[in-house]
Design brief:
The chain is α+β, with helices and mostly antiparallel strands. It contains three helices and twelve strands.
């Protein structure tokens, strides 16, 4: 069996969920805030993630994934909704990751059965916007969506029962997650229009609100 190449040419294009935190951040109670994320591309050298909270070049990030374990590194390039980071690893750790990436590239199958009454899906684009009761807009990361609710991660302290809209759909917080929270919609959303109504970056949402005013 050939030895994996220890460079950035061995890459896996994926969409794996995880969670992360910026090591320079702590909340008011001294706890480190975690946010949801998705790996978009990974190699033994670098990783690109879709993420709701970015950082500056050089900031340290710790990310947790079921498939890859804990990965730590520094941001090398901020993106519009996420960032690319270098991976801080020993040569042995890089070799193990390279072998795993190589294996995953040959066995791509991340479908998971879901027996819920209303099937949850992972949106192609996780970037959307929350509108609070006072009209304030907050960027958010959409973990998954269904006809009756959604799981969201955002830099926001929430309480059970708190009203808000995700994109153009109104709901309320029904459960706290790690990380993030779940909202239940006031009315069921047609399955075919889920992403159109729920996935709205701030500029797009403002445009829709003006058009519907």
């Amino acid at each position: 069996m050939s030895r994996p190449r220890m460079d950035d040419r061995l890459r896996l294009m994926t969409n794996m969920p995880g969670r992360y935190h910026l090591e320079k951040w702590t909340s008011a109670n001294g706890k480190t805030p975690y946010f949801a994320c998705r790996v978009q591309r990974i190699s033994p050298v670098t990783m690109s993630m879709a993420a709701p909270i970015g950082g500056a070049v050089g900031d340290w990030v710790t990310a947790h994934f079921d498939e890859f374990g804990v990965l730590r590194g520094q941001i090398t390039r901020p993106m519009g909704f996420g960032f690319t980071m270098s991976l801080d690893m020993t040569d042995e750790e890089r070799e193990r990751l390279a072998s795993h990436v190589q294996w995953l590239e040959k066995h791509k199958n991340y479908e998971v059965s879901d027996n819920r009454r209303y099937r949850r899906i992972t949106p192609k684009d996780p970037q959307s916007t929350i509108i609070l009761a006072d009209g304030v807009m907050i960027d958010c990361f959409v973990i998954d969506i269904s006809m009756t609710g959604a799981a969201i991660s955002a830099d926001l302290d929430v309480t059970i029962g708190m009203p808000m809209a995700l994109g153009t759909v109104v709901g309320r917080v029904v459960r706290l997650l790690d990380p993030g929270f779940a909202i239940e919609f006031l009315t069921r959303v047609d399955f075919d229009s889920l992403e159109n109504k729920l996935i709205c970056p701030r500029s797009e949402l403002r445009k829709r609100l003006i058009e519907n005013a």
